[in-house]
Amino acid sequence: MHEQTASSADAIASLAVKGGVAVSPQTIPIIKVDITDDDIEAAVAVLRSGMLAQGPRVAEFEERFAALTGARHAIACANGTCALQLAYELLIEPGDEVLCPAWTYIATASMLVARGAKPIFVDADPETYCIDLEDARRKITPRTTAIATTLIYGNPVDMEGVENLAVEHELSVIHDAAQAHLATFGGRGIGAFGDCATYSFYPTKNMTCGEGGMVTTNDDDLASRIRAFRSHGETEKYLHTSIGYNYRMTDVEGAMGASQLKRLANVTAQRRRNASRLTEMVSGIEGLVAPRTTPGGEHVFHLYAIRLDLDRFSCTRDEFIDALRAEGVACAVHYPRSLTRQPAFEAYVTEHLPVSDHLARALFCVPVHHALEGGQLDFVGAALAKVADAYRI
Question: How many CB atoms lie within 10 A of CB 158?
Fold first, then answer.
């Protein structure tokens, strides 16, 4: 058992959570929803036109998004979960086994279940937190037809590795890029890879329409089928060649999306600069592990996830972030449990996965967004060092 020394007792007593003075005089927010006057004016122009349903502004947004992500086609829809459902519906059949990361947001897997497929949960790579391709390879059976990946926190998965695995075993590939707008691999946009990539424009994402999603693909026939499926299977007005859903995006959202795309490259560059500064500071703090970008990839840092070496501290991860919050640094946990620990998937779980379970106990996120001002990043670094020094064994 760790014996507390006088110096460590003093360090703990200095923490704001114990009554000490906080590092930051004001709370530094974990996210910043960035809606500019240009975004508002774009939305208002649509509202004033009276033509609110999917139309020319959505078409403009789709065209520009496809170009920026390296895809031939981009199909806008109601939200990121709908985007996954559109992709899964047309690439996966009921009863299929689909390799799926256990370390991801629930929608990546829940929409497989909604399709009637069986998610086969794959552990996370302990360094990049993306899907572990060796574990995926071990879990392929004759019933496996597809692999779904998540570009977790904005970090690209090993696209070449996924493609090689898919070609070898004749698998469809769906990349959940909800957190990874403008991420690249090998200098190419994520839209250049796989059968489909899906995106979300939820308010916390690197860009937002309020809500909204996108599916990108380079398959002309698949793009046509997805467009029909998002609008009741309609191939021309009142001609329905298949069953479908109403997953259309409004022109209000399309106008906001097109407006936000104008500055997305600058926003992304600032996130990367902020992440670089954070990594410089975190790397100098014993017991904290900075995020690692997949070799060949370019991270967009939707979130900046720090891993706590649990053996080096006398506190839990949750106690560590409670102390950080008291120091004025907002924190978040993405995610507090892996998908194999979610009751909704109990029928599909054959084993719990050690890396994913460890990440659920050890990871936490600190602010990295592009709107951080002045010395806020330095405050984040100082707070991390203060709390780590207090609790380090």
Answer: 21
Domain with CATH 3.90.1150.10 in the chain: 6-32+264-391
Strands 144-150 and 172-176, by their bridges, are: parallel
374 pLDDT band, cuts 50/70/90, is confident
Query: Angle at which helices 107-115 and 80-91 pack, to 10 degrees?
Result: 40
Structural contact between residues 324 and 387, judged by C-beta atoms closer than 8 angstroms: yes
pLDDT tens digits, 145-157 = 999 999 999 999 9
Q: Which long-range contacts (CB under 8 A, 24 or more apart) does 309-315 make?
A: 309/362, 310/361, 310/362, 311/393, 312/286, 312/287, 312/392, 312/393, 313/287, 313/388, 313/391, 313/392, 313/393, 314/2, 314/4, 314/391, 314/392, 314/393, 315/391
Contacts of 111 by beta carbon, 8 Å cutoff, 6+ apart: 81, 84, 85, 88
Angle separating helix axes 317-326 and 376-391, nearest 10 degrees: 130
CATH 3.40.640.10 in the chain is located at 37-260
Count CB neighbours of 216 within 10 A. 30
Collapsing DSSP to helix, strand or coil, 172 comes out as strand
Strand stretches in the chain, DSSP E? 73-77, 97-101, 118-122, 144-150, 172-176, 184-185, 188-189, 196-200, 213-217, 234-236, 239-240, 288-289, 297-298, 304-308, 363-366
Q: Which residues pair with 392 in a beta bridge?
A: 313
8 A C-beta contact, residue 57 and residue 251? yes
Q: Which region among 1-10, 103-112, 235-244 has the lowest average model confidence (pLDDT)?
A: 1-10
Could you read off the pLDDT of 238-265 as tens digits, one per residue? 999 999 999 999 999 999 999 999 999 9
Q: What are phi and psi of 250, to 5 degrees?
A: -80, 160
To the nearest 10°, the Cα dihedral for 211, 83, 32, 34?
Answer: -60
Rg of the chain's alpha carbons, rounded to an integer?
Answer: 22
Q: Are 290 and 283 in contact (CB under 8 A)?
A: yes
In whole angstroms, give the CA distance from residue 145 to residue 163: 14
Fold of 6-32+264-391: Aspartate Aminotransferase, domain 1 (3.90.1150)
* CATH of 37-260 among 3.40.640.10, 3.40.50.300, 2.60.120.10, 3.30.450.20: 3.40.640.10
385 by DSSP, 3-state: which?
helix
